[in-house]
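So, does this match?
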Amino acid sequence: MRKLSLVTLALWATASQAQWVEASGQATINGGDLVAARAQATEDAVRRALLFAGVSVRSVQEATDGLLTRESLQVQSYGEMQQVQLVSERKKDGIFEVTIRADIVPSEPLCANVGYRKKLLITPFQLQNPEQAVIGDLFELGRVSSKVFSERLAEISHSSWPESFNNPVDATKLDYQERKAILQQYGARYLLSANLEDVSLGAQAGVNWEFWSDPDRKRYFHLQLSVHDLAENRVVFQQKYQTSAIWTYRKTTQMQPTDFRFWETPYGLAASRILNAAAMDVEEAIRCEAIEAEVIQVKENQVLINIGKLHGVAVGDKFQLVHRRELRDTFGQIQPLLAPTELQIEVSQVNSTVAWAQSVDQQLLANIQIGDIATVIVKPVDEFGDVVTESAEH
């Protein structure tokens, strides 16, 4: 199974807001192919550096191509990534590890929500055609793939944290009340679902001269993934991923996805690369999404909101209060109606999942009701312009 981890990560800010980020990527050496392993590890390290710095992942190809083809340890790139240095590389126990240092200057302002994290519900991935899983006994591939994806996202994400949602759900078919129920019960605005559209075997690969074994065949791994905003009933991100690899096993051989050996096969490695790419894409897509809190209690000039340290909330954070009402549209569907107020609140107490905030001018919040919304005004920054956050376990 291809392994990717951030071994070291350091960040320095200068007056010009350039960030030196040091990141490491790892890749399994498959079939002795050091060139491919080095390329994969380098690309992952560059992507991790860009994601950590809070910029769009765009310059990966230029940077990795330079590191892989030039003798110099320092190369120039374009856009956000001004400079990339190859710090070290090593091979150990079948793993190729690359460490890079990148000078990153964001080409556009950081979004207002940097420093806050959103809870993301992840449903079990579904096999669109279960009969395709018969050969190899891959019936658990969807469920295990969703678990692998969640682990990858949790490892790299600075903008969200995943939580399993055990029921397969098509978010596009949920009505307003159903979406609202999920929001309130799980405290999560975003729902990720995915289908494995094709895990079938393709044509025979090569010539088989051994009559006692089945011929090698290509096997597909086609993934359709989407992230849905339950509050606004919209698709935040949607993407298809397609890959294939040689399936070298007999028709009667069972390679269950719950077995670690499966993820070390050429097919498992190909699927793993797709899941890793999808995790990085989701992280980038959700990074600047709105962070909103629901008012769950009102007490004189204070309100209790349903986000806390796990979301990145800290004492001193400020929010604007927004009235929320429900109206029926011309089609008879219930729609939320949001009306911003001039009332601002500042967080005074915070625990893992909730926070108390009081009116900044000590005004009574008599017009605020349970179910109203608090939206981010600004996230405090330090003297270097870096977001000030409290560490949270997740």
